[in-house]
Design a protein that fits this description.
It is a single chain. The chain is about 10% helix and about 40% strand. The protein is mainly β and about 260 residues long. A hairpin with a 4-residue loop joins strand 2 (about 20) and strand 3. It starts with 5 loop residues before the first strand and ends in a 7-residue tail after the last strand.
Length: about 260
């Protein structure tokens, strides 16, 4: 996209890598920040600690654990009241830091450092466990936007749609609009009808990007059904997804070997 070559550090459990500027190639470096449980499972060279929780209410139609109206023999349009309780109970904390490269005499000023943060219920691969994800497109810009937001009395920088996994969405121009979030119950419910949209605020108390640095934040989001809003109006009378989630997390980036379980 004209943003230059990127150098990546992946914080999770993975393989070491080196950057060779002469050969213009790189291999991914993976760094781990597992919780005590993950350390027990993967003690080979993995250091770090993590703590956090994402909880509240979450309704996902046709997911038995999050849909009290679920009936395998017939479809329903009823929205339960109250909405089901939910707690992610993460035991594995992962960050993928992408460092922008600015080669040449006239580097592209749009090249920025970005990161992906993932909280997982277990240490399985992301498509086999429940996950909550965050993406931050412009780390320095988000920190500046957060300072400005707090000075105005706002709770933090906005979390806005689309989802982290939406690949065809354009990159944001405004750092204050560069935080995305989504939740996927790939372990407990792989076949929900729609992907939830997240909208809310996050406040970072630390946003490190190098080994040994801390990442911590508090957040609050509402869970929306974008398709139902388009088809039924806003707010939709019969969404397939609804809820409110809040939480926090704190971990330190550390280097380790690959350690997903199957």
């Amino acid at each position: 996209m004209g943003l230059g070559v990127r150098r990546r550090f992946v914080a999770g459990i993975g393989s070491d890598a080196t950057w060779d500027p002469g050969k213009r190639r790189h291999r991914r470096a993976r760094i781990a920040a597992p919780s005590v449980l993950a350390l027990a499972l993967f003690a080979s060279g993995c250091e770090g600690r993590g703590e956090g929780q994402i909880s509240g209410t979450l309704f996902l139609r046709d997911c038995p654990d999050q849909d009290p109206t679920y009936d395998s023999k017939r479809s329903s349009t009823v929205v339960p009241s109250p909405l089901p309780d939910f707690a992610l109970n993460p035991t594995y904390f992962f960050v993928d830091v992408q460092f922008a490269q600015r080669p040449g005499w006239y580097p592209d000023p749009r090249a920025v450092d970005s990161m992906f943060i993932r909280l997982q219920r277990s240490s399985h691969k992301p498509d086999r466990t429940d996950v909550f994800q965050l993406s931050v497109h412009d780390i320095d810009g988000v920190l500046a936007a957060q300072q400005a937001a707090l000075s105005r009395g706002e709770p933090g920088v906005p979390i806005i749609p689309p989802n982290v996994s939406t690949m065809n969405a354009p990159l944001p121009d405004d750092p204050a609009e560069s935080v995305r979030a989504d939740i996927a119950l790939n372990g407990s419910c792989q076949f929900s009808r729609v992907e939830p949209l997240m909208r809310g605020h996050i406040r970072f108390s630390a946003l490190g990007r190098n080994v040994g640095e801390e990442i911590s934040a508090e957040l609050r989001v509402t869970v929306e059904d974008g398709r139902a809003a388009r088809e039924q109006g806003s707010p939709p009378p019969s969404p397939n997804v609804a809820g409110e989630l809040a939480g926090s997390f704190r971990f330190f980036i550390s280097r380790g070997q690959r350690g997903y379980s199957w």
